[in-house]
Amino acid sequence: MKLTRNSKIFINYFLGPMLFCWLFWSIYQQIAHQPGLKQAWQQIIRSWNVDKLLLLLASLGLMLFNWGLEAYKWKLAVAPVQRIPFLQALQAIFAGVSFSVTTPNRVGEYFGRLMYVKEGSRLRTISVSIVGSISQLIITLLFGLAGLLVLRPLIIQEGMVNETWMQVLISGVSLVLIGFLLFYFRLRWILHLLSRPGLKKLFYLIEALEQLDTKILLQMLLISLFRFLVFGLQYYLFFYLFEVDLTLLQSFWTVNVSFLVMAVIPTIAIAELAQRGKVVITLAGLFSGNHLGITLATAAVWMVNLIFPALIGSLLILKKRKIVTA
What we know:
mainly alpha
């Protein structure tokens, strides 16, 4: 995918500033229209202390660790196409986040990452990048299914879903999970299908999948597992920070199911705070009546894991004066 001179000028000198300004405006709109904002801010000021500052710093550190894991996973995935240094991979991940927050289901992250891949290899990295995303989805489905099974009695008891629909939901998630696992570990089926004479023009886009053997696929799943656990730990820290009385296990299962729900709801990341808040309040509300604390914890996780990285990514694009070609 060779960029024209005009395309490079647009990306280098206009896209970064536009994206940076758009993110700031979108974040302001999301936060300013949150219900109970004044009350929430007053509570934060009243309850703030050194211990809570340390918890906040720990959560920020986990954010860097989390996206560092994603950078390593992407570096591993695209290695058959191009060897990318870790720091460059991390910059690509942040740039991808800055694009993804304003696109449905974060599909824009691929475009952001492609800016850090050399010309001639960009389209070929899309297929392996998608496989990396599927590894994360498999973990989300797996732990979300486990969460549904654990919380099933409580969810039915509270009348959120009746027994029949719960069984349908569990069966549906199980089938989708099995489907993705078959797809993930049988990539050669796709290669075989596209190697037919009439489809060979498309084969070069996915030929890098041949080098993603079982060992690499398992490594990506393991990294995805660690990322999932980091997300869960961040939620627990923020629940504790905002005085939501949940045990570690209650927080873990609640977050598992909320991630599953958010994974299947079409949404735009920059506008998903309200949806995410409703989902987490509904599920965490099974154990705690501190809805304000749950809302604050959800907003904090949203800010730390999506908005801060997106701003970093937009600054990297803003600073970038040429597209990486080597």
